[in-house]
Input
Amino acid sequence: MTSDYDPELEAKLAKIRVHASSKLENQKHMALILSAVEENIQEQNNPRTAVTYFVSFMSLLDRCIQDDIITDNALALSTAYFLDLLAPLTPKSLLKSNFAEILTKIAPAITNEQAEAPLIRSSIGVLETLLLSQDLASWKNASSMNISPKRGLMGLLELTLDSRPKVRRRAQEAISKILSNPPPGPSVEHPGSLDCADFATNKLIETMRLQKSKRKSEDRSANSAVIHCLQLISQITNTNSWPNVRIELVCDLLLEVAKSSDQFLITNAFQAFENLFNSMSEDELSIDKFDSVIKIILDLKPSVNDTHLAAPWLAVVAKASTAYSNANQTRFIKKFPIFVQTIIQFFSSESENICISTSQCLIAIITEGIHDDSLLIPSKQFPISPKLYESVDESITQLAEAVNSLLSVKYNHCLSDILNLISCIFIKLRSRANPDFLNCLEIVGAWRSDEQNFQYIQEADNVIGSAIGALGPEAVLSVLPLNLDSPKKTGRAWLLPLLRDNVRNANLSYFKTQLAPLIKFFEQKIASSTGDSVHAKIFATIIDQIWSLLPHFCDLPTDMPTEFDDEFASELASLMYSKVELRVTICQAFKSLVESNLVYSSGALSEDKLLQQQFPKESAAANIEVLSKMSSKLLSVLFNVFSQTVPELRGFILETIEPYLQISSQDDLVDSFKKVCLHLNQALEEDKKNITQAQLDGKKLPNQKLSTGEIPRLSVTMMDLIVVMVKYIPESSYNALLSIFNQTVAIDDSLIQKRSYRIIARLLETESGKNAVEQFLPQIESLFIDSAETTHIPAKAARFQALLRLIPILPDDHLYFIPSILSEVIITIKDPKERSRLLAYDVLKAMAFRMQKGGVVITSKVPGMDPDTPNTQASLSEYFTMCSAGLAGSTAHMIGATINAISYLFYEFRNDMDRDLLNEVSSTVELFLTSKNREIVNATLGFVKVSILTLPSDVVKENLPNLLANLMRWSHEHRGNFKTKVKHMVERLIRKFGADLVEQAIPEEDRKLIANIKKTKRREKRKAVEGDNEPEKSKAKSKTGFTSAFEDAIYNDSEDSEDDGDEDEPSNGKSRQYITESKDEPLDLLDQQTLARISSSKPKKFSKKDLAAKAGFRTNQEGKFVINNKIDDDLLDNKASGIDAYVEAVRNGPVKGQRNKLKYLRGKKANNDEDFGDESDEEPAATKKNMFNKIRKPKQKFKAGRKL
Output
């Protein structure tokens, strides 16, 4: 390696040398030229430097361009490419000293009409590097005009407007780079910036003149030329090289372009403005230039009624002011009144669009121009300049005066836009809007009170709501008092909903001193009036609205330590006991007190400096400490109220209990937990006595299922409270907690069992809880195994939820627990409860993941196994072996459930199973196609469908004859849709392997099925081509959005995406529409009601048979009902398979309807994982289906969404 070695050069050339054997001709050609040049360099014993290569390729360029004519296009292209590659590596001194010679040689490649776009682009790159290497003296040299750098720059500028996009883009990029790197000198501007600006503006003026003279048919080409000029201006302004002397001209031209109705022209004009503003805002030295730009733009103000120019000008002012504020906030604040006074004049325009643009412009200037830091009050934490504070204060005062002047009859035509502006001002300025905007607020409030004559009610509400949120309720109500207890004054009850929606971070004392007395006032009014009078109902509504304010006054209150004292808390607690209707409101207030302070103290809204200054995080932390000391008393109240409330209405109380458990001290938690445990023990003893007494008296045992409105037993209530406390009690109480689980899991009561399992599930949500469970894992596993037979069906879901969280933490030597409960999990796949079925699938999957991680299965510890049985290594293969044991079950129910379980696991873990395991599992399960039991065969068909999609094609192909032979046994069975299922699977095989191969493998007597499928396909294609498909068919062919891939694999029988696309194409682009026509009345197309009868789906004619089908009855040929009392031979035939159960459970969940809103297909909602309710403990009693059953509106449930 010589000293002349250049690693950057070698790296670039190496990438070209490797293409010597490329199949692409252009790459191969370049590699050959490089090889020839390098051989020549080696023959002359020259060093391989960038200079040597550059000189060699310049000589080569001379050979292919003679007398300004390109003699060899391919060679010229390759040579120019190498020169573009080598020029940046060539010393600048060489390029500067040989500028004229190099430019003379490269010019023909740019100016020649025969030059192709790739050659020009490479030549532009060489010219760019050549111009970048020139110093200031070279740029100012005018002695040889033809070969000066400016001459080369002008040639480059011509190419920036070239009609070829890539050439134009490359030239514009070169101009941008040249102007961004001016030669060293006293001026920061490039010597060629004025030439570039003049060229761009002159071309823009010329093209705009041509555009006006051309006809409309030629507008498109003229618009393109204008856009090219605008793109060039954007490139120049983006480099901050636009000369000051041309700023006024370019602003005038850009505004002229913005008058156009062409959106592309407007967009490019605004982009040029934005680049101009942004480039100056990023450069502190350009602030003086920015001042002149702002002045020029404001001087170009159009007439207020100029519908063409006013809106674009306002948009430019908004962009300019925002960029100006980012460049220098202090200068912007000083000019802020000028902006406002200039822009506000456009509200007098008669054009609605101009008024809207004026409002949006002012909103942008205020919200984006005034920074939040400028609104802070000077303090140690926020060292704001006093001068800036005073400037902002003066600007706000002037803004308020300007806005007040708008609230007159003169501007009534744009009052809606003005009100929207005022609303945004309150949101932005927050507390700084007080007191300057109080007069404005009073005027709007007076308008709002005159509801009959004021049409902008919603806009006024937005203004007042924004003021409440910004200034606080005290400031707003001082200007707009409620006057609810003063009949002679204007009442403003309409303020109560606005207060409810906007109060936050307010003084709680205001509610206690000003609003709470109103409640007593109206309660006395109700007491003195007739109960059913209209006035009494109005008074009751006002009381409810005032109480609804309490949770919002408790949302981050500023004076909580002094105002939320024991007396106030005790008063609210007594109201919870005495007035049931207030429990929701008071619980929301208690909950909001804790949660708002917790979230705020943890760092939420830390970027809101105005709020941080007004209410520091330390204050929120102090509030939490105060609440923590009161939590014990509040929890006692909540526990008592909880025990007195019916399960349907307990959700909000639990939601309130949890935050207070979260902030309680460890000692308080322990004391509360001990009290609940004591009450639980007493309640369980009481339950035992009641059961024993009932048995002695021969009475019925206490009902384990709660009826609606019934308060549960005390033992159940205490278990609910323990479940809630599990996540928060200290580790010292875990022994007692596990003891409760040990005691209650064996109680013969579904309500108690369910809550007992929830204890383990909730405990495993915390790390400390997992550690405690791991310490007692053998005992817990033993309890789970022993209680499998005694667990009530309603408690299955809670049990499986606990298993789902227990299995992942099993140590490597505790994997015997998995086969111990595996049979229970598999059989639960057939459980009648939907939630239990879903959880059973989840547990199956969790056990598979745990076995996949590895470990030792101590087989001797599995119940029923020989103590001498050797241990096995945990693996996915071993897990499938465990599951396969269920195939030897004694009942069809167990075998079917096992096949469903294997099908699910087979699909979920198909990518993790080796080929042998796939073959072994599939061959074993497919044998059950020969079974005579329909339940087993139904499950096996589901597995076959999965295996067709999952197994490698060659494996399925090898077993195809046997598979089809077994499948065809059920191709003639109509019951259970077996025939349809088999046909769908054959269609899948045809799509995968082709009709010929499937026809060869299928038994000869069943080949007519293949012919039938082919015939159906041909008919569908023919109808699609002829356009005879009905809209219903097209809709039926659309793919269903399944919830999971497994569901899609099992139930999606539509055509695969690789099929012929003709079938999925609609017959034409227009959708058909139908009009429902009555037989009794002729259709009147002039009737407006006819519009209501237009439908996009074809109306169906309902007959007696259709009605019977809806009711579930069959009819004979005469249309009479046929009732078949024959009992099915196979009682298990009508039960859905486990996979069906899994998919049906998913299908019955929420689905997307119109506008992506979720809806349920059934009336009963699925429970959440942590559902504390007992409504879903039992399956609903089977109701007799009748064709005359009415569909009733479901009863409304508690809106909190949590049930007990």
Q: What stands out?
A: Residues 280 and 286 are 5 Å apart (CA to CA). Residues 385-490 form one domain.
